[in-house]
Structures are given as C-alpha cells and as structure tokens.
Amino acid sequence: MNYYFAAFRKYAVFKGRATRSEYWYFTLFNILAVLGFGLIDQLMGTFNFDAGYGPLSAIYTLAMILPGLSVSIRRLHDTGRSGGWFLITAIPVLGLLVFLYFALLDSDPNPNQYGESPSWKYNIQNFSR
Asked: Cβ distance 74 to 116 under 8 Å?
C-alpha cells in the first residue's frame, strides 16, 4: 500500500522514475477501488449497466487519470524509454500489449537520463534496517 501512496503523492510528477512495484501496486489498488466503488454504486442503485459505471466509480476514475498517467510515464522512464512511448496505447490491442511488455520489464539498475535507479534506493533502505 505504501507504493500506492508513493505514486499518489507524486500525482503530477512526470520526471523521474517509478519502480515496477510502485507501478503495479498503484494499478492493483486502482482496480480494486474501481470495483469497490462499482459495487457501492450497484448497492445504491446508481450503477448504469449500459455505460458500465456509476457516479462514484466514474468520479474516482476521472480523479485517477493524472496520477495514472504520471506513474505510467515514470515507469517508462525507469526502463530507459521516453514518456512519449505511452502514446502507443492509442493503438487498440497491439499498443496496450507493447505498453504491458514495457511495464513488466525490470528496472534499469544504472542511472539514466531520467535519474538514479529508484530500485537501488529502495534496496539500500531495506538493507539499512
């Protein structure tokens, strides 16, 4: 859950790098939150089955667009790629698969043009405890 809040604290930071854990925990908690809000919408009778969302899940999803975009771009930076690669998701299936591949890649352990490796920083902090 710390990774979720770390990504959320940097909700509009497009510089730097995000570890694989930070990105995937952020994604996991967003999926769980949307499902939870969707369930609440259904229980309240406000879920629109034709549209596939209700007011709570729609508000949460809209609020998470900017944080999701920023953590995705920082994840691409962590693999040594420009944030412009995120535009590949505009290609319906193939683009999402390519982005998924990039998001699954391990972090570049060396400093790159986007900064020092955050996974190196997390490992040093874990060893010092």
From this structure: no
Output the six-digit token pair for 103: 């998001």
- 48 forms bridges with which residues in the sheet? 53
d(CA 114, CA 124): 20
β-pair partners for 115: 112
CA distance to 11, 16, 52, 55, 64, per residue, from 48 (Å)? 29, 39, 6, 9, 20
Q: Are 57 and 68 in contact (CB under 8 A)?
A: no
pLDDT tens digit sequence for 54-110: 999 999 999 999 999 999 999 999 999 999 999 999 999 999 999 999 999 998 888
Q: Which two tokens stand for residue 110?
A: 């060396």
